[in-house]
């Protein structure tokens, strides 16, 4: 019997396609919000992603040790909380701004504990980006949406720390698959309680399946594939493109326009993320967390 050759992409196209996939998934999610609401949408995304990963990875749950459960459960809860907060933010603010603000979490983690004076430049750039986004007049961008995006960024930082520990206790694909199961715990009750799932139709279920594919399954597979031959630091620099990709996706797919100041904010935070990756000892996450 001939061996089937597995199709793989070179690392750079794989990472770029993963970034595009995540932002396309976010655009699909925003399209579902008017009918299902953000809580039901994120519940479907995580639930369907968990089912697909279970079938693809087939983790042997009965063989996990107690110490492995202790590492993977908090990781999964952080993953679910992060996604819930991010989708609630997207229901209120443009996609590009949501991703830009969320990026503050991993950026802060990369800069934490740095003793190099030059890293202060990246802090200033990030602060300038936040200042440009903030509606100081109290009008325009939804302040609750901004707060939720920043909270999602904080959960992203926690998710990175816990993810490293979970990956140390379990193989990466197994850790993500089991973590996705527990990610449903803080999310699904809100999805059920919102009543949005009652509006589900076969067409909406198909869109939810595409959401799970583009937002979780496909980018995760592409990123893990790229990391086999791409240095983590190079990968992290490329991930700094996500805020711009989100802003472009929001503009092209959702008609969300940013002001000149908001585009500058996106650029500043991207520059801070890339710069922090180059000069600090803690690069941004090896696998994206949206």
UniProtKB/TrEMBL annotation:
Any one annotated GO CC term: membrane
A Pfam family matched in the record: EamA
Coiled coil: none
Compartments, as annotated in UniProt: Membrane
Membrane protein topology class: Multi-pass membrane protein
Keyword Transmembrane: yes
EamA domain segment(s): 144-274
Membrane-spanning intervals of the chain: 93-113, 120-137, 143-162, 174-197, 203-222, 234-254, 260-278
Entry keywords, A to Z: Membrane, Transmembrane, Transmembrane helix
Family: Belongs to the EamA transporter family.
UniProt protein name: DMT family transporter
Organism: Hymenobacter cellulosilyticus
């Amino acid at each position: 019997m001939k061996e089937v050759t597995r199709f793989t992409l070179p690392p750079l196209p794989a990472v770029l396609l993963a970034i595009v996939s995540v932002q396309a998934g976010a655009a699909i999610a925003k399209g579902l919000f008017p009918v299902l609401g953000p809580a039901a949408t994120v519940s479907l995304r995580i639930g369907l992603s968990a089912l697909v990963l279970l079938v693809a990875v087939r983790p042997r749950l009965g063989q996990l040790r107690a110490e492995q459960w202790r590492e993977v459960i908090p990781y999964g809860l952080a993953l679910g909380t992060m996604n819930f907060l991010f989708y609630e933010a997207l229901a209120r603010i443009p996609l590009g701004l949501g991703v830009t603000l969320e990026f503050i979490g991993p950026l802060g983690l990369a800069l934490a504990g740095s003793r190099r004076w030059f890293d202060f430049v990246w802090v200033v750039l990030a602060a300038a980006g936040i200042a440009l986004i903030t509606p100081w007049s109290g009008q325009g961008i939804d302040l609750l949406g901004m707060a939720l995006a920043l909270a999602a960024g904080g959960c992203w930082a926690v998710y990175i720390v816990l993810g490293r520990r979970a990956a140390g206790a379990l193989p990466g694909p197994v850790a993500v698959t089991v973590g996705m199961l527990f990610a449903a715990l803080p999310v699904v009750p809100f999805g059920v309680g919102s009543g949005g799932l009652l509006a589900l139709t076969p067409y909406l279920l198909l869109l939810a399946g595409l959401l799970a594919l583009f937002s979780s399954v496909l980018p995760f597979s592409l990123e893990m594939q790229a990391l086999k031959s791409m240095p983590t630091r190079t990968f992290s620099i490329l991930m700094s493109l996500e805020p711009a990709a989100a802003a472009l996706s929001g503009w092209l797919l959702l008609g969300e326009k940013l002001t000149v100041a908001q585009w500058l904010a996106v650029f500043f935070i991207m520059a801070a993320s890339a710069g922090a990756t180059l000069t600090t000892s803690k690069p941004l996450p090896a696998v994206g967390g949206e």
